[in-house]
Amino acid sequence: MEPRTTNTRGPFRCGFFMAFSPDGQTIASGSWDKTIKLWDTKTGMELQALEGHSNWISSVAFSPDRQTIASGSVDKTIKLWDTKTGMELQTLEGHSDMVLSVAFSPDRQTIASGSGDNTIKLWDAKTGTELQTLKGHSASVGSVAFYPDGQTLASGSGDNTIKLWDAETGTELQTLKGHSLSVSSVMNEPNFNSHSQISLSNAWVALGGENLLWLPAEYRHFACHAVKDATLALGYMNGRVSIIGFHTP
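Above: the chain's sequence. Below: its structure in token form.
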């Protein structure tokens, strides 16, 4: 199984966060230069540069229909963007600290945001109206993700816990404890297939638990990464983005 690698380079640092579009055709990367860049995963070509935040980008997420991107920033705001035109659609304000994570609900109607102010906020994706604030974590909320049914929201925090919430009522359903360090990522993949799962371990990229690609030393110190099906994107401090695609049976 031969991996296909594409390298591309932007004029600034890769930044803090990357996300694949639902169809896997585009990557969004947020940067310390205050921009979001969109990349074609097949050609490595830069498609758009979205500018508007006043501080560096800490999170990005595509809507399920790929038409909208939400970006969270150290400037305490969430911005919504049209992926076709690159136009800023609206700005969501309400957090008192940096926005560390953003996620769309499966029906595209709601946006969740996690913040350094220890809260999660739910927003109406069409109007930008704040719907409710979920409180319960005792440290910053670094990750949020909706369950595939859209009824439950998961949040990971610097307080070393994962909390599950009723996305409609805002009620805390459960607290999952056991981590000895902060929880920086929670995700729910409706099409998860263990045989095509990509993982990173030291110098190796593995697919389905089998080491397939050895990374030279200069490729191991990536600043951010994103996975979509059998495609892996690695972002580096010098602005390079490496896209590695595996052909699966």
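The mean pLDDT is 79.
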